[in-house]
Design a protein that fits this description.
The structure is a homodimer of 282-residue chains. Chain A has 282 residues and is α/β, with parallel strands linked by helices. Helix content of chain A is 38%, strand content 21%. Chain A contains nine helices and ten strands. In chain A, the strands form two sheets. Chain A has a six-stranded parallel β-sheet with strand order 1-4-3-2-6-7, sandwiched between helices. Chain A has a three-stranded antiparallel β-sheet with strand order 8-9-10, covered by helices on one side. In chain A, α2 (35-47) links the parallel β2 (24-29) and β3. In chain A, α6 (124-139) crosses α7 and α8 runs antiparallel to α9 (220-232).
């Protein structure tokens, strides 16, 4: 496993590998790897001749009041995990190399970026789209792997790839959950034991909605309201939003007619968590 | 010479050529080709194994009040010129293929895009950066060729390539002028004979400034004022701006200390023209 820090060095290597007809699988991460990341890395390993993982806590997707500085950075452990999964290249750039002096170019996926999490996280998805565009240009992947956990991010990157004609296949893999149902997240490390138990209410609410749909419920308002009520019973959990939307344009649906995304975000003390499920009609 | 209309088809071809170690030279144009374009095409022909020219009048870089509909589209003549220059592929997409339903992703080079021409052409450079990013992703060029005539565009694309780590070499080639000094532009076709003669005042003003610098003048304000005065004597020409700026960040300079860009824009009747020169210190 080779660790590369300079964008130009990795890009040169990748262009050379492409000329030699290699398929490049790419998993962009902010590190603090958990089983969710592992599932992406394993899939990418199976499907490509070369596997690149980037670890970069991207400043441009954090607001000033967010957790950029305290975001976990267990680099040694991350590298060991990657080595164990047969990663070929770790890309480990510095913020200075990714955002050199005079940096001023941004990729914006309008509309989608202002909805759901975008309402409270101003510029977050501009930061995400921009760093992913940069990483795609550096790594030149055949396929890039993202988690369904960040459903809005996945929708935005899907749209960006299509709109900007990026020669990359997007693979979005299922949410991985802990034994109690909590969606894995690098931010779960912020939660103490009691908070972790309280956080279970989020996935429980999603299961409730799935049950309702199974029983024939199709009215978005009814489903969303019961999700909200269920979560609000837990006093330590502050719901940011719960919404039933189209998985592509993220606009609210009134009635479930095809697969719909039930997405939510909530705060437990200082920690913001997100979770979602795709409500499927058979 | 092969004419390709579908983005996906060209991209597939280009990726295949790259795998076969071809260098791809790319000249993006809006058609109405003149000797300025020809100089780019010829340079690209010399320096690459494959030569791609795109012809696309890009709607997203025109404001509603601008000349999108009347912009010249002499396609037959353009194709003949390209054939004569040994172009391998002409990319001729439709607006619908380039901006499909739901299109919402834009590349913005902040700062630079709001200066000079950006003050009066709102969203113009957002449209330029976005279409160029798209074209780069479709054509996958090793080198892309632009004219120094559009100095601000060149500065913005240079910044975009650097900021987004695009694996493309940018080549900016000198302005080509008519016998009287008028910078070639597809929009010169809008000018009648009298207007063409009036328009000579622009390049004459630039020559004047070059002379002043040669004689030792270094104060930007003095140079810009004499340019303005010279142009304003011609009553049929309405100056939009004349500015002496740094060629990279496009910010005004007070004193000429290194190569500086003297850029101007003016209207003659309904036609907006631009011109510039780089004032060089030996």
């Amino acid at each position: 496993m080779k660790i590369i820090r300079r964008p130009q060095e990795l890009q040169k290597l990748m262009l050379e590998l492409k000329r030699r007809n290699k398929t490049i699988g790419f998993v962009p991460t902010m590190g603090a790897l958990h089983a969710g990341h592992m599932s992406l890395i394993q899939a990418a390993r199976k499907e490509n001749s070369i596997l690149v993982v980037s670890i970069f806590v991207n400043p441009s997707q954090f607001s000033p009041n967010e957790d950029l500085n305290r975001y976990p950075r267990p680099l040694k452990q991350d590298l060991a995990l990657c080595r164990g999964c047969g990663v070929d290249f770790i890309f480990l750039p510095s913020p200075e190399d990714m955002y050199p002096e005079g940096f001023t170019t941004y990729v914006t996926v309008e509309g989608l970026s202002g909805l759901l999490c975008g309402r409270s996280r101003r510029n977050h998805f501009r930061g995400v789209a921009t760093i992913v565009a940069k990483l795609f240009n550096i790594v030149c992947p055949s396929s890039a792997y993202f988690g369904q956990k960040d459903a809005q991010q996945a929708a935005i990157i899907k749209r960006m790839i299509k709109d900007l004609n990026m020669p990359v296949k997007l693979k979005v893999l299922p949410i991985i959950r802990g034994s109690g149902g909590l969606a894995l997240s690098s931010r779960n490390i912020y939660l103490n034991q009691a908070e972790k138990e309280d956080a279970l209410v989020l996935s429980q609410a999603l299961r409730l909605a799935e049950q309702a749909v199974k029983k024939g419920q199709r009215t978005a308002g009814t489903i969303v309201n019961s999700v909200k009520k269920f979560i609000q019973k837990k006093r330590t959990v502050t719901l940011d939003y719960a919404a039933l939307v189209d998985p592509d344009d993220l606009l609210p649906v009134k009635t479930i007619r095809r697969d719909s995304l039930l997405a939510l975000a909530a705060r437990i003390h200082r920690t913001r968590l997100i979770d979602n499920t795709v409500l499927k009609l058979k």
